[in-house]
Amino acid sequence: MVCPLNSPSYSKSLEEVHEKVKQIEHDQKLQNISRTEVHQADNMKEEKKIVHHLLYPYSDLFKRWGADLSEEEQTVAQELFLKYGYNVYISDHLPLDRPITDTRSPSCKKRIYPKDLPTISVVLIFMNEALSIILRAITSIINRTPAHLLKEIILVDDYSSNDDLKGPLETQIKNYNAKHPGLLKIVRHEKRQGLTQARISGWEASTADVVAILDAHIEVNMAWAEPILSRIKEDRTVIISPVFDNIRFDDFELLQYSVAADGFDWALWCLYEPLPDEWYALKDETAPVRSPSIMGILAADRKFLGEIGVLDGGMHIYGGENVELGLRAWQCGGKIEVLPCSRIAHLERAHKPYLPDLSIAVKRNALRVAEVWMDDYKYMVYFAWNLPIENSGIDYGDLSSRKELRKKLNCKGFDWYIKNVYPNLRFLPNIVGYGTMKNTLKEDICIDQGPVPGNTPIIYPCHAYSPQVMQTNEQIFTDEVLLTVTFKLDRCVTDPGSGDLPILEQCDIAVSKGLNLHWDFKQGSAVINRNTKRCLEITADNTGTYRLVMQTCTGQRYTFISLCS
Ligand code: UDP
Ligand code: MN
């Protein structure tokens, strides 16, 4: 997993939906324009410029790329795009050793590293990635890693079916090895084992002092390895993440990302955290960033990674393995750091060809993490996925060896972790529900934050996007408190005690003003304000329009419906 700036989310914001609609309208306009241009060109006769008909105006591939392609080329590009989730057409046309922008800060560029650093094995894992993509990754590694430090590049094929990854890839490996004897190795899985096991297989095959385990659709940037190797030389217990830039899936331009710490929410989706104050206090842009977790791509002392249990081989297909490593590293005597001077360009796909719905795998793997590492906090993960703790119905596999590992390594608990490593991870004791909140009287309308700016919650047709995300313990929070961190200003539902409307107030202000923000609520029961004893209910006026009101309880009930499952 490498985190996109807006991490994969099951609750897309309305803005995104509007954005999509605007884009479709825009695409249609473009198509009309290009038709008019063709028409004008016909009339003018001497105008030779060919403007092609856009065959796929709704495809993400052609939003800002491909206007000059013939119809035949568009079809080839579109088919490759659907198969791979990125622009293989452009990849096949770009040089393997293309230059990319050096995105390091000036102070990184000035740093000088010792020559005698530990050696490195670089692992590239893949499952049906495009051949030119893999070759460009290899080329960038060879060109941008000091030859005396690069011991080997290990390709791990997670049972790909594409023909070009068989014979043609073998030929390429031979060619590389003719120039750089013994540099390239390949491990092939006999059946599909998922990305975690692919990373483990790469680690098993590696022999250098340090191992870097990368996706196959990357291009390493200038001097990416030296910061990693010198940091691990200083401290073998640190697990490292480089900083990612995004290779855009359509035009392959490099989009620079800021340096950030790697975090996660309670569903264990990745997210970027602001840099810690202590890091700014150092006034050194090259300093390592202490990070609660890791995104997936990692570098570590090979033996140390083995000592702490590499990765959880019981994980399926995708997701969760990165958080598991983050917790295990911190809880068992290691640490995680992001190194600002080590930069890797990573291609963010438009879609995952191997799994249309990532949440199925992430959910299952998240429960493994919760069960092994999260102690009394594990129910937050169950809540985030809206699963009962007992009999969740999800078979997360055998955990005995991971639990034994935790015992053997004498690891600290999650309570220590959350207090000392990740205090930004919001913890709400005694959560009753999370998701959209529906009145059982009428199930197609939901509690909604109402117009913004404004502070009157309303009842609105259910659409499950973020203005309708609610959660409650003894307070009713709006927005995704469970899934985000402290920098958001949460709002709480309060009963003003008079009038017939509930009011939203920023929670900390509601607390300091002593407003009525505590409620008694259980799944499927009334929502009663603890102080005023009034209920949050709905009324219909004579036009049949519903309003959310505070009134004397009449026995109305609410249920939470999850957004995750
Ligand atoms: N991968 C794999 N086996 C799988 C799924 C993925 O080996 O079953 C590889 C994939 O080719 C890629 C890496 O795992 O090199 C990470 O997957 P992906 O890039 O799709 O995840 P993201 O980086 O977008 O989170
Ligand atoms: Mn990737």
Automatic annotation (TrEMBL):
<protein>
    <recommendedName>
        <fullName>Polypeptide N-acetylgalactosaminyltransferase</fullName>
        <ecNumber>2.4.1.-</ecNumber>
    </recommendedName>
</protein>
<keyword id="KW-0333">Golgi apparatus</keyword>
<dbReference type="InterPro" id="IPR035992">
    <property type="entry name" value="Ricin_B-like_lectins"/>
</dbReference>
<dbReference type="GO" id="GO:0030246">
    <property type="term" value="F:carbohydrate binding"/>
</dbReference>
<feature type="domain" description="Ricin B lectin">
    <location>
        <begin position="434"/>
        <end position="561"/>
    </location>
</feature>
<dbReference type="GO" id="GO:0006493">
    <property type="term" value="P:protein O-linked glycosylation"/>
</dbReference>
<keyword id="KW-1133">Transmembrane helix</keyword>
<keyword id="KW-1015">Disulfide bond</keyword>
<keyword id="KW-0735">Signal-anchor</keyword>
<keyword id="KW-0325">Glycoprotein</keyword>
<keyword id="KW-0328">Glycosyltransferase</keyword>
<dbReference type="GO" id="GO:0000139">
    <property type="term" value="C:Golgi membrane"/>
</dbReference>
<comment type="similarity">
    <text>Belongs to the glycosyltransferase 2 family. GalNAc-T subfamily.</text>
</comment>
<dbReference type="InterPro" id="IPR000772">
    <property type="entry name" value="Ricin_B_lectin"/>
</dbReference>
<dbReference type="GO" id="GO:0004653">
    <property type="term" value="F:polypeptide N-acetylgalactosaminyltransferase activity"/>
</dbReference>
<dbReference type="InterPro" id="IPR029044">
    <property type="entry name" value="Nucleotide-diphossugar_trans"/>
</dbReference>
<keyword id="KW-0430">Lectin</keyword>
<dbReference type="InterPro" id="IPR001173">
    <property type="entry name" value="Glyco_trans_2-like"/>
</dbReference>
<keyword id="KW-0464">Manganese</keyword>
<dbReference type="Pfam" id="PF00652">
    <property type="entry name" value="Ricin_B_lectin"/>
</dbReference>
<keyword id="KW-0472">Membrane</keyword>
<comment type="pathway">
    <text>Protein modification; protein glycosylation.</text>
</comment>
<keyword id="KW-0812">Transmembrane</keyword>
<keyword id="KW-0808">Transferase</keyword>
<keyword id="KW-0479">Metal-binding</keyword>
<dbReference type="Pfam" id="PF00535">
    <property type="entry name" value="Glycos_transf_2"/>
</dbReference>
<dbReference type="InterPro" id="IPR045885">
    <property type="entry name" value="GalNAc-T"/>
</dbReference>
<dbReference type="GO" id="GO:0046872">
    <property type="term" value="F:metal ion binding"/>
</dbReference>
